[in-house]
Design brief:
The complex is a heterotrimer of chains A (about 325), B (about 300) and C (about 325). Chain A is of the alpha/beta class and about 325 residues long. In chain A, about 30% of the residues lie in helices and about 25% in strands. Chain B has a two-stranded antiparallel ribbon with strand order 1-2. Classes of the chains: A alpha/beta (about 325), B mainly alpha (about 300), C alpha/beta (about 325). At the A-C interface, helix 8, helix 9 and helix 11 of A face helix 6, helix 7, helix 8, helix 9 and helix 10 of C.
């Protein structure tokens, strides 16, 4: 039964631990298995029709979270509920069929295209997979979509192979491919990071336009907070597998509560020499996700860390007086 | 950095044009191609017009051990048989066996490699174990053992040689599948909702083909030499029929007496044909791999 | 006014490919003065990395310099033989690369690498002395002393990048070319790196050519900025005037299309089209197909790169002959 409430996706207590590969001798000697705590207990909802941003640096777990939601990888713990249906209760075949409603745009458009498949075939492949259309009908629909994303001249580009297209064209191909079955949701993993700078604005605009036309919901995964600001409605900041702050764009950007969020926002290079950064950056680098620091994961680098921060891991709680703004920090009361 | 996309013109155009910038490959492509064409034409002619060979290779047509002359271009062997005709007729056997064995090892090795690499698990481990065991044997020794076991005849010979090369195809294909499986476009196909067999057939297999084709032609070259080796040790297809390896075996004792032609010409034939197929394979690999030039 | 360290006169670089010749750098002339940070900015394929490699004479074959001069400390680098150029590299001109993991020898400890660098150029320095210098250098870069004997894979990305700066500084190079030094770094580490580079630059009056596609990084660090497009220089100016009032339509379009996290309004302007195919570039001004101000002349004649106002250079017909 479709979910009548607002949420298209509900993520509850999601964890993903990857076992660390060890050599034969090492495995004999050290009894304990080690894990990469890629995602370590994450809760959030994505509302229908919104652009939900998942931001963080490397090791934050944002990409893994995206792949978990798409069920390209199995969760270690936790639930993912898509339109009211708990995905762990589904069989492999049912999950495969559910992919019609949830599509993905990968970071590297060239790597995510089969080098031996023509553009038109690649875009329309999902139509064939699910028996929606084939032959002439498939071609017609693909050409129509190509026009839509401005992949023109469509009938010429239809027969080209990936290495014959420009970077911007390839980007549009993967967008078109994701849209063919009119999915409910699109997970976009750094969709513009590999595009040329002058082309990025156009791609962002295209994504916004398509969202309106096709009634899409986006999960927008990125490390670039400037881009996220442009397109997202709500955003969650991740650090070492946990969400440290979450809220609407206004809330998180105008009034960041978590020291990490504050540092992250200050660190983004601004294209304006009058606005050169003066605030100091937290020391050190992101620790290993195999042995995350105890208590609050950010405490070793946090400028305002207290004793409790090294002992207890803070829970994601509401910021007082700011509905919908959540932060995981002991020092926000 | 920006990538300048390469538009691939037709296969034939590329084959003929070769590559102007890197001289060696140009010659490999075209020369190798010519050699193979030459061989194939020769074989075809042998089938169509036995008259290409000036004499019947199996009967005495001149004095024994005449050196190369106007009547017998390559001279005659110890039974007075014209060596040139023997070379031409011998090509039939050699090519038959080489092509058949390469095809057999292809038919067995490739599908097993695809399935094993894709499914993994116990099946993969079992097959890898079997294949590695076969691979561990020195090729010629294994071929000799199998040929002795199976007996003479084109088919038996081909099976013996094919068995030696199955692991080569298997390992190559399996390795390719394992690495292609991790590519982003395979994951993209999964995310589109493609089933396993679709992924294997439309995404993985087409990307494995270029390397298979190259190894196939190299395999033929190898098989030619193996077949000659088997004939040399007396396990050839049919001692009564002309056979390059066998002719070398028979003629080798004559080298001491200064009669070089019974050994040299069959030897050259083997070397040239094997080389031709090798070059063809190398040239093919240059053509088949889509290249991107980075600027 | 400080004196010039590097002067490029009409430098051109060609790359022959299977489908034609690509002009990677087209007739570039500019000066880099002592103690300044020159930002060289542009999109992928514009030729900025090629230019950096050309200055170091480290172009990957089949690329080669086909015209112009590179004058460094009075010498034309193009005319130098291999041995002389080798002496210059490291000691006088240093390079910091994008991905430190691939540029540091994975089988060599950091300390050994620095010591080797020092001793290669100063064979008279004894090993212990070199080690001491290395230790001091690493300490100055904010890497803890005990890490000095680590291998590159044991260090994090940011630390490796700092080792690269260390190598560049080890010999007090006159000129440091940094090619996309922060592209592979996380945001906060990038900020730390830029802070450190700025401090070191001020402290030692370093001359740096900062090559990047990131407009924000250029705004943070550069004193002057050169904008490249399709192998040509489009604009060159001090950083403040360039950002406040860009002269070239490409610069203007580029600056307007980059999201600025500080702005309250979303006002991204979209540049139509995409960077040109360098095998078959458009005639006249290479930017004209995308230029909102394109005139008839732009389609057939390439505008010269000249000083439009004192200290401000541009290649655009909007500014007359």
């Amino acid at each position: 039964m479709p979910d009548t409430s607002d949420n298209l996706i509900q993520v509850q207590g999601l964890k993903k631990w990857f076992p660390v590969q060890k050599g034969f001798i090492e495995r004999l000697v050290t009894r304990q298995r080690q894990f990469v705590h890629a995602v370590d207990g994450v809760d959030f909802n994505i509302r229908r029709g919104e652009v939900f941003g998942l931001a963080g640096e490397s090791g934050s777990g944002k990409t893994t979270t995206g792949r978990l939601i798409l069920h390209l990888v199995e969760p270690t713990e936790g639930n993912i509920i898509f339109d009211g249906v708990d995905m762990s209760t589904l069989s492999n075949e049912e999950i495969r069929r559910m992919r019609q409603r949830m599509q993905v745009i990968f970071q590297d458009p060239f790597a995510s295209m089969n080098p031996r498949m023509k553009t038109g075939d690649a875009i329309g492949h999902s139509l064939e997979i699910f028996g929606v259309a084939k032959g002439e009908e498939k071609r017609r629909r693909v050409l129509e979509m190509m026009e839509h994303v401005e992949l023109t001249p469509a009938h010429v580009l239809y027969d080209k192979f990936p290495h014959q297209l420009s970077g911007g064209q390839r980007q549009r191909v993967v967008i078109a491919r994701a849209l063919m079955l009119h999915p409910d949701m699109i997970v976009a993993d750094e969709p513009i990071a590999m595009a040329d700078v002058s082309v990025r604005a156009m791609l962002l605009e295209l994504m916004v336009q398509l969202k309106r036309e096709f009634n899409l919901t986006y999960l927008f995964i990125t490390h670039d907070l400037a881009t996220a600001k442009y397109i997202c409605d709500r955003i969650a900041i991740m650090y070492l597998g946990l969400i440290c702050e979450m809220g609407t764009l206004e809330q998180v950007y105008r009034n960041p509560q978590h020291p990490y969020t504050q540092a992250l926002l200050a660190a983004v290079p601004v294209p304006d020499p009058h606005a050169r950064r003066t605030a100091p950056m937290p020391k050190g680098e992101i620790p290993s996700p195999i042995t995350p620091p105890p208590g609050c994961r950010f405490h070793p680098r946090c400028p305002i860390a207290q004793e409790i921060c090294s002992q207890e891991s803070p829970l994601l709680q509401s910021v007082p007086g700011d509905e919908g703004h959540l932060v995981a920090c002991h020092l926000v009361k | 950095m920006a990538q300048v996309a390469e538009i691939q013109p037709g296969l034939l155009a590329r084959f003929l044009r070769g590559r102007k910038w890197y001289g060696t490959e140009w010659y490999m492509t075209v020369t190798g191609g010519f050699i193979v064409v030459f061989i194939v034409v020769l074989t075809a002619l042998t089938f169509l017009t036995p008259n290409l060979a000036p004499y019947d290779p199996e009967i005495r047509t001149g004095d024994p051990f005449t050196s190369p002359s106007a009547e017998h271009i390559f001279g005659t062997d110890q039974l007075g048989r014209d060596i040139f005709s023997r070379i031409i007729y011998g090509a039939q056997i050699v090519l038959q066996v080489a092509l058949l064995s390469a095809t057999l090892s292809f038919i067995v090795g490739v599908p097993l490699g695809l399935v094993s690499g894709f499914l993994g698990g116990k099946l993969d481990r079992l097959l890898s174990l079997i294949m590695d065991s076969i691979y561990a044997f020195p090729g010629l020794i294994l071929a000799i053992a199998l040929a002795a076991l199976l007996g003479a005849g084109v088919l038996n010979m081909s099976i013996a040689i094919a068995t030696v090369y199955v692991p080569t195809f298997f390992r190559l294909v399996r390795g390719q599948v394992l690495s292609i499986k991790e590519e982003m476009y395979v994951e993209a196909a999964r995310s589109l909702g493609a089933r396993g067999r679709t992924i294997l057939w439309r995404y993985i297999f087409p990307n494995v083909i270029p390397s298979i084709v190259v190894v196939f032609s190299l395999n033929i070259a190898d098989a030619i030499i193996t077949e000659a080796g088997l004939a040399f040790v007396g396990l050839g297809v049919d001692p009564s029929k002309p056979d390059w390896g066998y002719d070398i075996y028979r003629g080798r004792s004559e080298l001491v007496g200064g009669r070089w032609w019974p050994v040299t010409f069959p030897g050259l034939a083997i070397a040239l044909v094997a080389l031709g197929f090798s070059m063809f394979g190398e040239g093919l690999s240059e053509i088949l791999n889509p290249r991107l030039t980075e600027v | 006014m400080s004196e010039p360290v590097l002067q490029l006169h009409n430098l051109s670089v060609d790359y022959p490919t299977r489908v034609g010749v690509v002009r990677g750098v087209d007739n570039v002339s500019m000066t880099v003065n002592r103690g300044e940070v020159l930002g060289l900015v542009g999109e992928s394929g514009c030729g900025k990395s090629t230019l950096g490699a050309a200055i170091m004479r480290l172009l990957r074959p089949p690329g080669k310099i086909v015209g112009g001069e590179i004058v460094f400390n009075g010498q034309d680098l193009i005319k130098l033989d291999k041995e002389a150029m080798r002496h210059l590299r490291g000691a006088h001109i240093s390079m910091i690369f994008q991905d430190p993991m691939t540029c540091l020898n994975p089988l060599q400890r950091v300390s050994d690498h620095v010591v080797e660098t020092i001793q290669t150029h100063h064979p008279e320095v004894k090993k212990e002395e070199a080690r001491e210098q290395a230790a001091k250098l690493i300490d100055r870069l904010g890497i803890r002393a005990e890490r000095i004997d680590d291998y590159p894979h044991q260090l994090s990305g940011g630390m490796r990048q700092r080792v690269m700066i260390g190598l560049a500084l080890a010999l007090n190079a006159d000129l440091i070319i940094a090619d996309e030094p922060t592209t592979s770094l996380d945001v906060i580490v990038e900020a730390q790196f830029l802070d450190q580079l700025r401090d070191l630059q001020r402290q030692f009056n370093l001359t740096i050519i900062l090559i990047t596609h990131n407009i924000g990084v250029v705004a943070e660090l550069a004193d002057r900025v050169a904008v490249m497009y399709a192998g040509k220089l489009m604009e060159l100016a001090d950083v403040f005037p360039l950002f406040d009032d860009p002269l070239h339509p490409y610069t203007r379009g580029l600056l307007n299309s980059v999201p600025n996290i500080n702005l309250t309004e979303d006002n991204l302007q979209i540049m139509s089209g995409s960077p040109p195919d360098l095998i078959d570039p458009p005639p006249g001004c290479k930017f004209h197909p995308r230029c909102p101000n394109a005139m008839e002349r732009c389609k057939t004649q390439e505008p010269p790169f000249k000083e439009v106002q004192p200290g401000r250079w541009a290649a655009c017909w909007l500014y007359g002959e």
